[in-house]
Amino acid sequence: MKKGKNWGFSTNSVHAGEIRYNEYGAITTPIVQTSTFIFKNIEEIKKLPKGMTGRYEYGRYGHPTQVAAEGKLAILEGAEGAVLFSSGMSAITTTLFSLLKAGDHIIITDDAYKRTLDFCKTCLGRFNIGCTVVKMCDYDAIKKAIKPNTRIFFSESPTNPYLNIMDLERLMRIFKGTGILVISDSTFATPYNQRPLEYGIDLVIHSATKYLGGHNDILSGVVLGRKKLTNVVREYLKITGGCIDPHPSYLLIRGLKTFELRMQRHNENGQKIAEFLENHPKVQRVYYPGLPSHPHYKVAKKQMKGFGGVVTFEVKNDVSYALKFMSRLKVINIGPSLGGVESLITHPATISYYAISKKERLALGIKDGLIRLAVGVENAKDLIADLDQALV
Ligand SMILES: *Cc1c(COP(=O)(O)O)cnc(C)c1O
User: Fold this and answer.
1) Domain ranges, ordered by start, for the chain
2) C-alpha closest to that of 312 among 261, 355, 265, 366
3) Which of 89, 111, 188, 310 to mutate to test the pocket of ligand 1 (most atoms within 8 A of CB)?
4) Which fold does the domain 9-256 belong to in CATH?
5) Which residues carry out catalysis?
6) Which residue of 34, 37, 197, 378 has the lowest C-beta tally within 10 Å?
7) CATH classification of 259-390 is 3.30.750.24, yes or no?
């Protein structure tokens, strides 16, 4: 496996994890599109009870394209181990199932990804695992929520849609030495902008569907951390079965080659567009951690290299104005998700929270005029012109 001790981020993005000279001499890592790996002869079968070293067995237990993608991600995150999944949610649910048992307790922050919250509150409850939801960044509440049976603290940073930033140093002062595992969904930050493992976070999770894949064309998730923990998760994946297929593994490797370049552009575009929106008379408020007006600007500056491509803002507090504004856009597409080369815009009230009552939605802070823009890697000037002509 290729790796260099002092390689820079882009050199690792391009080369790390892959085999220097594969058996075809192909510069790209092959898509080994197979569900099963056959035995050459009876001697190989006889080695079976001694373990599977040096060969593959069956797709759900791992395959060469997955191993290369995992190697690259581990090096980029600075992690000992990485386990890939078929989606971010599969990574999250399998990780929690593998580390919790009946009678345990988990603490999760209130603006975590909606499906993760659903899983912790509803599914885990059915297995007698208690869950306390605490307010994001309320460090006293986090401390108070700890019980003798607390096994995991789960949070995200930055969060969706308000881009709240957890102060990782302050967080770890609470959990250090407690034996409670701290897990951080770092999807919005990526290993380019934030390095949670360096603060002592136990496991980092990403929806690789977003910036890591980067092209709005695959679903994938990854869990990273010490091998002692990722091995437990990997064994559980073999049971729960949310494994990644060879083809998306290849697309992930391919997407990661330009990871640093894309992140630099996302960061640059995000900042420019946030500044443009903040000065626009039709925009009432902008939420972007790179703006001094963001409540967590100082923490963000301290612990992040850049602030990514997601910019949240409020237009007139009126659903029909918000939807008309989005429908006037010509470059930016309307749709959920983020982190891809194409810019996407969404109106959370109608696109993500349509199933709940308006009262519940407002209680979650999802106002009628709230817009989430996931800036891609297009030219900032074209995106700004597109937004400007639509904000009438
Ligand atoms: C998208 C997302 C997920 C879920 O990932 P999928 O790949 O869609 O399953 C989890 N957490 C965050 C923060 C996300 O943005």
Assistant:
1) 9-256, 259-390
2) 366
3) 89
4) Aspartate Aminotransferase; domain 2 (3.40.640)
5) 60, 113, 185, 210
6) 34
7) no
